[in-house]
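R.M. (postdoc): so does anyone remember the format we settled on? I'll just put the structure tokens first.
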């Protein structure tokens, strides 16, 4: 289990096999439950909604390629941040180093924002 996102308490040294299996099943589950998907006789895909929409819709019908397009849109691209920060927490904000300390020594707040023109993008 060499993954960057394994819940706390579940690791290689953990003897709790049932817990590790539970985590693996969670990670490998499909995006939609099998019992909510149906392939109709005419080739279209029917997706049953968990709850009816406010207009009463309980199912969605898709052509096969259209359904795959919808699924592909839900898949994040590799090496892209899923959380984007704006304002003061944005990586290139002038005040970001003052707000996010990262163990840096305290600075005098009266001196204004830190100037760091050579700062690489993505880092405060």
């Amino acid at each position: 289990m060499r993954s960057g996102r394994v819940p706390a308490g579940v690791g290689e040294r953990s003897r709790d096999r049932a817990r590790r299996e539970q985590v693996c099943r969670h990670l490998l589950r499909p995006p939609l439950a099998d019992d909510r998907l149906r392939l109709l006789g005419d080739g279209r895909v029917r997706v049953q909604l968990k709850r009816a929409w406010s207009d009463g819709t309980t199912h969605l019908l898709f052509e096969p390629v259209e359904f795959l397009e919808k699924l592909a849109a839900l898949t994040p691209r590799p090496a892209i941040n899923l959380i984007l920060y704006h304002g003061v927490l944005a990586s290139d904000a002038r005040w970001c180093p003052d707000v996010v300390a990262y163990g840096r020594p305290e600075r005098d707040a009266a001196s204004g924002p830190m100037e760091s023109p050579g700062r690489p993008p993505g880092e405060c």
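R.M.: ...and that's the designed sequence above, right after the tokens. Also worth knowing: The first helix runs from residue 17 to 27. The chain is about 20% helix and 10% strand.
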